[in-house]
Amino acid sequence: MIPDGTRTADYDFELPPERIAQHPLARRDASRLMVVDRATETIAHRTFADVAELFDPRDVLVVNRTRVLRARLLGARASGAPAEILLLKPLGDGRYEAMVSPGGKLKPGRRVDIAPGFAAEILEVTERRTRIVQLESELAVDDAIDRFGHIPLPPYINRADRPEDAERYQTVFAREAGSVAAPTAGLHFTPELLARIEARGVARADVLLHVGAGTFKPVEVDDPERHVMHEEWYSVTNAAARTINERRAAGGRVWAVGTTSVRTLESAADESGLVHAGERETRIFIRPPYRFRAVDHLVTNFHLPRSTLIMLVAAFAGYELTMRAYRLAIESGYRFYSYGDAMLIL
Questions:
Q1: Cα dist from 68 to 127, 170, 178, 185, whole Å
Q2: Domain with 20 in it: what CATH number?
Q3: Cα-based angle 64, 248, 316 (whole degrees, multiple of 5)
Q4: Which of 124-128, 231-235, 292-296 is the most confident on average?
């Protein structure tokens, strides 16, 4: 008999469209917080601003300091027809790996004019059908992207990006640009809330993982083991590793903010749970059954059906408890996905 939670179909659920948050709340920490306790298998409902009360002074809060690129470039082909380029990964000298639309028209040698003095040439098609593009700009390329690019809102947000998204689709601790999606669990934190957590004696460790487009890719095979993960680049500094290891050794708990922080920590940890400094690419795919080594508590949002992210949550909380929490969230009117509400798994 195949255990529950080990097949892709186990992660199907029906979500009413009105549950998908299309806009952020007026205040980041006003979102709802579902608190899931693994030890007692109980579920409680709070407001995110209350989360500071749940920390022990010995704990450490781990956040991802990545910043979202204005990675969506809208332009026109030589015919005047529209075209879109989504930058995925910088390759140096103005070259990027990118997703393009329409894929059938944007073959090597074709150009997309994005703005006066800013264009992209398609250089080659990769094995996974993405493109290598060369950006050409009268400005510095990074400046051109920042000036003419759009915030790459996820496809389930059915609207164009607005000026407010330039701030609200970034965490308040975002520092280093490189992601095509926000580490959305971090969107709920405000400077004031972070200060309250710090005032309790809690340490903070910043790690870095640049989120790739693979975060939106559903698992399309019946057996998740056959799913191919996109690689993502991460970095853990000596200072961050030392803080995490010292706090945990002293009896503190590691709070990972978001699945990106979890993937970073679990990629950087050895079998004993010791986190090592370094930087490299990871393809880690966390799903049941998985033994966590470096994470004690998880702050996360509510994720898409059949996604690698809901599988990670099920590996952490247990499949049955995760799906019960999702059913309750839908029944209770929680807001889902990037601009939605949050879950804390203790």
A1: 25, 6, 6, 14
A2: 3.40.1780.10
A3: 60
A4: 292-296
